[in-house]
Write a structure and sequence with these properties.
heterotrimer; A alpha/beta (244); B mainly beta (88); C mainly beta (200); A: 5-stranded parallel β-sheet; 5 helices; C: mainly beta; 5-stranded mixed β-sheet; 11 strands; globular
């Protein structure tokens, strides 16, 4: 016997694209207008659903990239080779297009602004997106961002991060595939050695948020624990193999 | 690409869990019926195949299975001995 | 009716309609989808058993299994998550060979696997050249990520029935829903009748 309709549309709301902004050659920020949006917290994400004319549907999850702003939701999407949804969002979608959104969700990977200690944010590739939402609303909390990107061109929010770094945000960039001429920054993977050098030490009990591809997140989380950080203070969000 | 690269965590099920339970479930504390380990749902291992399979990060036992088909959802949570939620 | 996302098509490939069941698209890849961590069963510990509604337990070690006659087949496979892969080549032991001489009143079987996965099928969907225990894919030993050392191969049903890491069959009098069939997926799973979920 089929269940009666208990759940209204399983949480989906209609949304309209208000703007599409390039961030890097492969990354765009999509600004959505969502009537009735309840607001969200940095670190949370949304589910997006696209429906084709023949009824075919695809769903993906994206972290919110910016703090809540009325009914605006900003998502930063990286184009994945041979992807199904990301090539549509980054190359085809434009202002006026419609899709569905569900959320915001996620309470585990959310920055509690009451936390008394420093904050350590470690992002790999598009894993920096939820961390950026946290940075954009961080207030006076001592914050360190360790961000691993392939090349300088792949650094999302680069201009804004440079400005924030001049203003006191501790930004540690590591470019793992290629570095520009005269690069004086890091080029190694985010490992225990790098973290020991740049992260707040375990004695300061930093609250750590680690986000990116699954192998990146697991290696970094393990390294932090090996260095003596409390596993209960290391929060992780895995994006899967390619960061989607 | 290996299966271990594809593993996600409970955060990826936050949307459907919220739709089903009407609450933010990634911070609910689940107890594994296999080994008794407890922890936030957001921190469990999540596999995506024909449906979502949430597994205990300690012993790999199946905690939950979630299958969605359009507007229908099936949830098997037999692997959770209990779920603790805090009202606030 | 949900809003249509202008210009969204999803991943589609052109393929002959008589080869692609309804709602499927063809992929050149072989997506890895798993309900759990990849088991790594050493071959010296592997066996395949037929148990349940049988006169006695039937068992083959890996070495014994390797001496059984095999078929090499090229088949299309259809995953319920909507991808289909055409012309995949497998080598394995036919279930007709494994069930030969086994007397049973059972009409159903449950395949059981390392890692705990199970799936159920009518026994007649395993016989008459419709199913194999396959251990070679595309000329190479079956990769653990795709179910190696051996997986069930039942191409006429959705691919969740082609259980990875299969270790045996339990013959049963009734149809006992397996891992997915007990939680929404169709008991039978014919892709040509689009039997994906309960009630389809």
């Amino acid at each position: 016997m089929a269940g009666a309709a208990v759940l209204g549309r399983l949480g989906w709301k209609s949304a309209t694209i208000a703007d599409v902004r390039p961030e890097t050659p492969r990354v765009k920020t999509i600004v959505l207008d969502v009537p009735g949006w309840p607001g969200h917290r940095a670190g949370q994400h949304v589910d997006i659903r696209l429906t084709a004319e023949d009824g075919y549907q695809a769903e993906r999850s994206y972290s919110v990239a910016a703090p809540a702003n009325d009914q605006r939701v900003e998502l930063t999407v990286e184009e994945i080779d041979d992807g199904e949804v990301s090539p549509y969002l980054t190359a085809e979608a434009r202002a006026g297009d419609e899709l569905e959104i569900r959320g915001p969700v996620g309470g585990y990977f959310v920055w509690d602004s009451d936390y008394p200690g420093p904050v350590l944010l470690v992002g790999g590739g598009s894993g920096v997106v939820p961390l950026m939402a946290m940075i954009r609303q961080r207030g006076a909390v001592p914050t360190t961002l360790v961000y691993s990107a392939r090349t300088l061109e792949d650094v999302i929010y680069r201009g804004e991060l440079e400005r924030l770094a001049r203003g006191g945000l501790d930004v540690v960039l590591t470019l793992t595939r290629a570095q520009p001429e005269g690069w004086a920054g890091h080029s190694r993977r985010v490992d225990a050695e790098l973290l020991a050098e740049v992260a707040p030490p375990p004695e300061q009990r930093p609250l750590a948020f680690v986000c990116g591809p699954t192998p990146f997140v697991e290696a970094v989380a393990l390294a932090l624990v090996d260095l003596g950080h409390d596993p209960g203070l290391v929060k992780t969000e895995r994006f899967g193999p390619t960061g989607t | 690409m290996t299966v271990s690269d594809l593993v996600l965590d409970g955060n990826a099920a936050a949307g459907i869990l919220h739709a089903v339970y009407g609450a933010e479930m990634t911070i609910a504390v689940g107890t594994c019926d296999g080994c008794g380990t407890a922890g936030p749902v957001g921190a469990v291992r999540l596999y995506r195949s024909a449906g979502l399979v949430l597994r205990c990060p300690h012993c790999d036992a199946v905690l939950m299975k979630i299958v969605t088909a359009g507007e229908r959802v099936w949830v098997d949570s037999r692997g959770l001995r209990s779920l603790e939620l805090t009202a606030g | 009716m949900p809003p249509i996302s202008r210009g969204f098509r999803g991943k589609r490939r052109d393929a002959p309609a008589d080869r692609v069941p309804p709602g499927q698209y063809v992929t050149p890849d072989f997506p890895v989808l798993s309900a759990g961590p990849t088991p790594h069963r050493p071959l010296e510990e592997w066996d395949f058993t037929i148990i349940g509604e049988v006169d006695e337990l039937h068992r083959w070690s890996w070495d014994e299994f390797q001496t059984l006659p095999t078929d090499t087949v090229t088949v299309d496979i259809h995953c319920v998550t909507r991808w289909s892969k055409l012309d995949t080549t497998w080598k394995g032991v036919s279930l007709d060979t494994l069930l030969e001489g086994i007397e049973t009143e059972a009409e159903y079987a449950t395949a059981f696997c390392d890692g705990g996965y199970t799936t159920n099928l009518p026994l007649e969907d395993l016989t008459d050249g419709k199913a194999w225990v396959a251990y070679i894919y595309d000329g190479e030993p079956l990769d653990p990520e795709h179910g190696g050392p051996a997986r069930l191969l039942v191409p006429h049903l959705y691919f969740w029935k082609s259980a990875k890491w299969v270790r045996g069959l339990r013959l049963t009098a009734t149809d006992e829903p397996g891992f997915w069939e007990s939680n929404g997926y169709h008991l039978y799973g014919d892709p040509w009748r689009e039997q994906r979920y309960w009630g389809d």
